Amino acid sequence: MKNLYINNRFFFTLFGVGVLYILAFFFPFLMVFAHGLLILAVLAIMVDYLLLFNQKNALQAQRILPEKFSNGDQNSVKIDLKNNYPFRIQAKVIDEIPFQFQKRDFLIERKVEPQKNVMFEYILEPKERGTYSFGNLNVFVESVLGLVSRRFTFQKDAVLPSYPSFIHLRKYELTALQNEFLLGGMKKIRKIGHTMEFEQIKEYVPGDDVRTINWKATSKRNQLMVNQFQDEKAQRIYMVIDKGRTMQMPFGGLSLLDYSVNATMALSHIILKKSDRAGIMTFAKKTENKVAADNKSGQLKKISEALYHIQTNFFESDFSRLYQDVKFSIGQRSLILLFTNFETLDAVNRQMKYLRGIARNHLLVVVFFRNSELQQLIHKNPENMQEVYDEIIAEKFEFEKKLIIQELRKYGIYTVYTLPENLSIEVINKYLEIKSRGIL
User: Fold this and answer.
1) Fewest beta carbons within 10 Å, which of 71, 85, 233, 386?
2) Which range marks the domain in which residue 309 is found?
3) β pairing state of 225-231 and 196-203
């Protein structure tokens, strides 16, 4: 009996019988109809109960989960129902989804024909990394009478990890292989210098660069020979993520730290596809979660595991410690993308000597964030004096961000200044730009 549930239709029926008995008190001839309706209601409840409970394994249901959640993305969860009853049923599905989503009104209703399967899905969008625990998959079944319901319970335990965003890796890969982003729009840029690796010596043909003529080979073969080069590969790219208190600011449900983690995952995938070496490092009070730059087959999985285990804290980030660790642990010149957030020019100036120290031996790109809420205030038409003040303050903060960019560029430090939701696209674009210009 614990799986028996009474529906609203049952109470409406009893209410109708009660009203008829009340009327029969004033109009006695209605008493016969009231008795008859009560008997029909009792019989209908008994028939409904027998229809639902006289068969074992009358319903089969399965929750189909992905191997892991992609953090910050829309993840599909599928439910497969099979009706073994000889009649059509009305199924109400209540899945006990993880508490992190805070969905208290989950309900999906479906009609399932006899001896048929129906599959449907719903979308979950996790906003933080970690484990997500599912509870029971509850299905309440009604017959055509709809007076009572029978509850079926499936899959009591299911735990799913939420990893840094990986759903859109294929999209980023395709756009990177085309060497341009349709969304961001990347134009061709003249290469600086001659950062190419030697490939072979071949015979000269009209159109070859005369500056690449190999005079020794020409004298031996008695014909013009030129050196052929290929794009330099296996360059080291490190993504350094600040996990201090400035990265806890949330936008769209995700913190700046999680946006940086997702962008690092996407960029690592592109770097490895370009045959470069990808590595990561995080820092606050000290540097942690180090993965040395490499391009082996299991490197992306190693990076994904390191990003998954990043724990946030509210310490003030120590850039001096970062400078020391970068100096002693990254010996060869590398591209370093530093994900952090500076709100004021004073904050940058306090760390400038350490940033300049890193940029002296490496190509440093500082990635920091445009405040989307301030952008809304700037582009909003003010309607009262308070909104005018808000707009002026927002413009002041935005202007200070531009001063930060100028100050960093003055010392040869590249920047990416972007909205959090555009971070992955922007950092991949910057990487492709640096590769195309050959400045690493």
Assistant:
1) 386
2) 169-190+233-437
3) antiparallel
